[in-house]
Amino acid sequence: MNARCAVLATLLALSCNSYSVPSDVVNGVVVITQFTPGTTWGSYLTYSVDPSVAVVDETGAVTVSCSVDGSQLVPTIESNMNARGYENVPFGEAADIEIKMDALLGSVNTYVPGYCGWYPYYYCYPGWTYTGSYSFGTLVLTMGDTKNATPGGKLPLLWTNADYGVLAAYFDSGCTGSGTSVNWVKIRAAIDQAFSDSPYIVRP
């Protein structure tokens, strides 16, 4: 849970105390976007997309991290950015905006209060009944301001997008899987929705 909170707090500027996965994530997808107020989007001309996905995997007993191939999602990001007037440059070359992908994987057990019987002279200590578990998987996109970055300093964040519920079967079993069960269509649709919800990202 600590890694889960730390990653999303860093990427989304949300506090660990206030962060929670929306309840309807179990049966659908929730798309959230945030941007840095005062950003002059027209001052940026070029962008690049990192084709790798940095993963924090909490599907097992021990939290692990890895990097997986996300190149199948790059064309969707590029299509949205190109439609808004930005010029794509290969990743690794100088660009005004750098777009990265991160993922958080895990599972949650759910419980409900158990039966509580009252007995004379005793307090009631109700137990908890296990009702099942569900897997969660969140894809996070971030836009870093490489144009105005200070050498050796942190990369200023322009925009973040969290797509909850799109990676429940991501790479089968997290960092040790093969990726054959990934629903790429579902993920691409969430990315398209994130850009649709962010009309301010445009180069006049």
Q: Secondary-structure blueprint of this entry?
A:
Layout: H1 2-12, E1 30-35, E2 46-58, E3 64-69, H2 74-83, E4 87-88, E5 97-113, E6 128-145, E7 157-164, H3 184-196
Parallel strand pairs: 2-4, 2-5
Antiparallel strand pairs: 1-7, 2-3, 5-6, 6-7
Description:
The N terminus is likely disordered. With 204 residues, this protein is an alpha/beta fold. It has one domain: Double Stranded RNA Binding Domain, CATH 3.30.160. Strands 1, 2, 3, 4, 5, 6 and 7 form a 7-stranded mixed β-sheet that branches. The longest helix has 13 residues. Helix content is 17%, strand content 34%. The protein is built from 3 helices and 7 strands, in the order αβββαββββα.
Largest β-sheet summary? 7 strands, mixed
What is the second-level CATH architecture? 2-Layer Sandwich
Number of helices: 3
Question: What's the CATH topology label?
Answer: Double Stranded RNA Binding Domain
The best one-word shape is globular
* Beta strands, count: 7
What is the H-and-E element order? HEEEHEEEEH
Tally of individual domains: 1
Could you name the ranges where pLDDT drops below 50 across 5 or more consecutive residues? 1-26, 117-126
Helix content: 10-25%
Mean pLDDT across all residues, rounded? Answer: 76
Tell me the name of the CATH class: Alpha Beta
Helix/sheet category = alpha/beta
Radius of gyration: 20 Å
**Percent range for β-strand residues:** 25-35%
User: What separation lies between the terminal Cα atoms?
Assistant: 42 Å
